[in-house]
Write a structure and sequence with these properties.
This protein is mainly β and 911 residues long. The chain folds into 6 domains: 57 residues, no CATH class; 129 residues; 379 residues, 7 Propeller (Methylamine Dehydrogenase, Chain H), CATH 2.130.10; 105 residues, Immunoglobulin-like (Sandwich); 108 residues, CalX-beta domain (Immunoglobulin-like), CATH 2.60.40; 92 residues, Immunoglobulins (Immunoglobulin-like), CATH 2.60.40.10. Helix content is 9%, strand content 41%. The chain has 8 helices and 62 strands. The strands form 15 sheets. It has a 6-stranded antiparallel β-sheet, with no helix packed on it. A 5-stranded mixed β-sheet has the order 41-43-39-37-45, with no helix packed on it. A 5-stranded mixed β-sheet has the order 38-46-44-40-42, with no helix packed on it. The protein is globular, with a radius of gyration of 29 Å.
């Protein structure tokens, strides 16, 4: 029977693709689910002719971006969590819906809800529902639970301060060994988004500051999280309204400016934003989008191969490659782009996969496998892990223009192979299947594969959680696995034994439910040098968290004793590593060296790991021999990272340190990294002066600073120390920060400045001695508005189409004016073209036709922004006369074939 089904599937596929003049439109998620009083609760609710019978069931089957359409009838809401889902916003639930265009009578369509507290009458009325709030029909326990959830929902829309995990709870969020450091709700983000998606981060090597880059339905926000208890939004790069965004970072040292430069790369699915580039070089005060002509309109995911996950620098010294997954080009197979020009990623001909890729990861192999299992020869082999729905593919991409597939690995019970990550010893792969919980009713399931043989990865372990929450993405730091677990929030696993992970911590960012729905934590980022964790939540925004699980390791915490070490060329550098808070059992830790501005010819090492015996807590050292090459080249930097602890120990927060190598006899100097900064009162709200040590890290040093001029008044226009002393210990060349908080006095006045000066150097000389800070005062600088529109739409002819620009916003809070115009397609009549929301009726067309419309928004000062959206109107279907012997259009035949195929194969979301 299975053979016949597979054969039929194959035949249907072939027939669909061979038939000419056929056009298909497919949306990842973002489908309609149908509910009617006469329906039955089974299937996926996506067939309007066979709707489901309850809103609660439809909510359990909805994916990110889906809409639930509810017809006439009475619908009891039986669960408190469903009330939360109704008002949460991640899934659009609308009542009063008609499922087809047939008008049967003039009776109004009324969707009545019972079991919902009366407080939400007006909110749900705007969504097409009538509320019958008979309190007698609500059980006391459910009333209390619903009210608790609704109160929590309100609180999660706004920011929450740092709250420790005490007795299993942090600010109402269930927790275990994880502290809440901060939460930024939607209402406290400048663009006022309504949904979150993916998250990434990086450490700026110019300043040592940490940044989280979080995706939202309306664009991408960059937060300074150096003080994780007080995240600051630095900028928001707007985009089309879309469910899916992904982000990665590349950072490199520019020899011309002698500064680090960094760029973020963003892809969006379900829109036409394509690939775009954010210039992060203006940090710590600003970011901006770069003009870049993308050769794709959409993509599901993006990955920066051959980059360090904490800093974004190259792992090998070679130019990294961007991997674009699930794009609009090439049937979704991966595409490779060179970052030789990081402002304009360049497509690499030949650098593509063989089939659809959903997500990716990569690793550098330097052990014997590079010679025995890889195709490319050389000092390393670069491996790409391709998660493509049906199997795991492994590629040798050492030569990105000529990838070679090493293996294809399916597994029993696979529903949707979504993503995965690898252990730091590079021997194991952890794999997420996004739909096994959803379709099979499994508990949260994470699979472990051995990669000892890259040609034949083998399943060697499975972890199962205590709920049906879906596992989405996961990442490794040391022997901890940080997993965004949807409705379960952040889950932390101890992977000291990769074949038998153990749950050790959690922070539930979606406390309403642990069910198998697509709500809650989308992504997690655990690679900050501080050890802090960033979490993105679909329903409530952005979180920073502190992992306490490592502190419970009986083998102790392994970390560097200092963050910076230094020596002159020809002299050794000894990095000291400590074991604390426990010493039970033997513990071993490996380390790796990243070439920041130095390279492999500048140093050598003898040992590759450090070991402690049971009861031993002595200081161990990593000894680096530096080479005197006789070349005057300035101070160079290595990053040394502790990895892959073995035994009962864990990595401490300080698992990355800098090693600075200077030319012999060079004197140290100090100066401001940037000469000035312009900051508005009402935007970033902080002035950051960066003081850089150059020349040499050898010897103690200090310098004083003070405000020496300007018309800005301390404690009136800004707050911060007007004078002080900065010190560096012997071996320390890390940048130092002087920070001032800008005060918004609400007074319209001219720009104000103050001058910061360095003097009184001890053990050091001064190079760039002054820093000028300008406060753009009064109402602050007028910033351009952000024009935002909804996702591209595909509609049948005759439908009323809404062009929604209501999410457009102005950073200064000014009132905007709107203008919609049509830019392509047969002319249509636009209604309300001078409002945020315009409409038109989709005309009858003989073939699928694209229409484009541009929205321009203006602020009172004349600054404008424009954005374009695309509407595709489907070919009008003309029903043949009964006496006709015609067989219908080829397009309809294809659709019927596809319908047969989908009866055989369940719909699977790509999320």
């Amino acid at each position: 029977m299975k053979f016949l089904i597979k054969k039929l599937e194959f035949i249907l596929y072939i027939m669909c693709f061979l038939l000419p003049n056929t056009s298909f439109a497919h949306g990842d998620g973002e489908q309609s689910l149908f509910v009617a009083a006469s329906g039955e609760d089974n299937g996926n609710c996506t067939d309007a002719e066979n709707p489901c019978g309850s809103i609660g069931y439809a909510l359990s089957r909805a994916a990110k971006g889906d809409e639930i359409r509810v017809s006439s009838g009475v619908y009891p809401i039986d669960k408190a969590e469903d009330i939360f889902h109704l008002i949460g916003g991640a899934i659009n639930v609308r009542g009063g819906q008609v499922f087809d265009n047939k008008i049967t009578d003039n009776k109004p369509i009324t969707s009545i809800l019972t079991g919902v507290p009366f407080q939400y009458r007006d909110f749900l009325k705007n969504k097409g529902f009538t509320i019958v709030a008979d309190q007698k029909s609500l059980e006391t326990e459910r009333i209390a639970t619903a009210e608790k959830f609704l109160e929590l929902h309100k609180s999660l829309m706004s920011s929450i301060p740092a709250t420790p995990c005490v007795d299993g709870e942090a600010a109402g969020l269930p927790c275990d060994n994880v502290n809440l450091l901060s939460h930024v709700g939607f209402v406290d983000i400048s663009s006022n988004p309504s949904e979150g998606n993916d998250i990434w981060g990086f450490v700026d090597l110019n300043t040592g500051r940490e940044y989280a880059i979080a995706g939202f339905n309306l664009g991408t926000a960059i937060f300074d999280v150096t003080d994780a208890t007080n995240p600051r939004e630095i900028g928001f790069i707007n985009g089309q309204d879309a469910v899916w965004r992904d982000v990665k970072v590349y950072q490199f040292f520019d020899d011309n400016t002698e500064h680090w430069k960094a760029y973020a790369y963003i892809t969006t699915d379900g829109s036409t934003d394509g690939l775009f580039v954010i210039d992060l070089t203006g940090l710590p005060h600003s970011v901006q989008r770069i003009s870049y002509l993308s050769d794709i309109t959409s993509a599901h995911n993006i990955y920066a191969a051959n980059t360090d996950y904490s800093t974004g620098i190259s792992l090998t010294g070679d130019i990294p490659t961007l991997i674009i997954a699930g794009s609009s080009a090439g049937n979704g197979r991966y595409r490779s782009y060179s970052l030789d020009n990081p402002e304009a990623p360049d497509f690499i001909p030949g650098g593509t996969g063989s089939g659809y890729m959903h997500d990716a990861s990569s690793l550098i192999i330097r052990d014997s496998r590079k010679d025995t299992q890889c195709v490319s020869t050389g000092p390393y082999c670069e491996i790409l892990l391709d998660f493509n729905e049906n199997m795991i593919e492994i590629w040798d991409v050492t030569e990105p223009e000529a990838p070679v597939q090493l293996s294809q690995t399916p597994y029993s019970g696979a529903e949707y192979i979504h993503s995965g990550w690898w252990s730091e010893d590079k021997q194991f792969l952890f794999v997420h299947d996004e739909l096994d919980e959803y379709y099979l009713g499994l508990p949260t399931t994470l699979r472990t594969f051995s990669m000892a043989d890259l040609a034949n990865p083998a399943l060697v372990g499975t972890w199962e959680g205590s709920t049906n929450a879906i596992d989405h993405n996961g990442f490794v730091r040391g022997n901890r696995y940080y997993m965004s677990n949807y409705t379960r929030g952040l889950t932390i696993l101890n992977i000291a034994d990769p074949t038998a992970p153990e749950a050790v911590g959690r922070l539930d960012t979606y406390p309403v439910s642990d069910n198998g729905s697509f709500n809650g934590a989308w992504g997690a980022y655990p690679f900050f040098h501080s050890g802090n964790i960033a979490i993105s939540d679909i329903n409530s925004g952005f979180y920073m968290a502190e992992d306490l699980t490592r502190g419970t390791a009986v083998g102790g915490l392994i970390s560097f004793d200092m963050s910076s070490y230094g020596a002159e060329e020809g002299q050794p550098i000894s990095l000291t590593v400590k074991r604390e808070l426990g010493n039970s059992g033997p513990v071993t830790v490996d380390y790796e060296i990243l070439h920041a501005t130095a390279d492999g010819e500048d140093y050598s090492t003898t040992n590759a790991s450090l070991s402690w015996t049971d009861g031993d807590n002595s200081i161990q050292t990593i000894d680096i021999s530096t080479m005197d090459d006789g070349i005057s080249e300035g101070m160079e930097r290595l990053l040394v990272r502790l990895i892959s602890p073995d035994g009962e120990g864990a990595l401490g927060n300080l698992n990355t340190a800098s090693a600075y190598i200077s030319d012999p006899g060079t004197s140290p100097s100090v100066g401001f990294l940037f000469p000035n900064a312009d900051v508005t009162e009402r935007y970033f709200g902080a002035i950051i002066a960066v003081v850089k040590r150059s020349g040499s890290a050898v010897g103690n040093a200090s310098v004083d600073y003070s405000i020496t001029g300007g018309d800005a008044i301390p404690d009136s226009d800004f707050e911060g120390s007007a004078s002080g002393t900065i010190t560096w210990a012997d071996g320390d060349a890390n940048p130092k920060i002087i920070q001032f908080e800008v005060i918004d006095d609400g007074i319209t006045e001219s720009n104000e400045t103050f001058i910061l000066t360095l003097d009184n150097p001890i053990g050091i000389t001064i190079s760039e001695s002054t820093f000028a800070a300008t406060i753009l005062d009064g109402d602050g600088a007028n910033l351009a508005p952000n024009a935002l529109v909804g996702s591209s739409q595909t509609v049948p002819s005759g439908n009323e189409v809404t062009l929604d620009g209501s999410q457009s916003n102005d950073p200064n809070g000014d009132t905007l004016t709107y203008e919609w115009i049509q830019t392509s397609g047969p002319n249509v009549i636009l209604n309300n073209a001078n409002t945020s929301t315009a409409t038109f009726t989709a005309p009858s067309v003989s073939s699928d036709t694209m229409f484009q419309f541009q929205l321009t928004v203006d602020d009172p000062s004349g600054l404008t922004d424009s954005v374009t959206t695309t509407i595709t109107v489907l070919k009008s279907i003309i029903t043949p006369e009964p006496e006709s012997s015609g067989g219908g259009s080829l397009g309809m035949v294809s659709l019927l074939l596809l319908a047969g195929l989908f009866k055989l194969k369940r719909r699977k979301y790509r999320i």
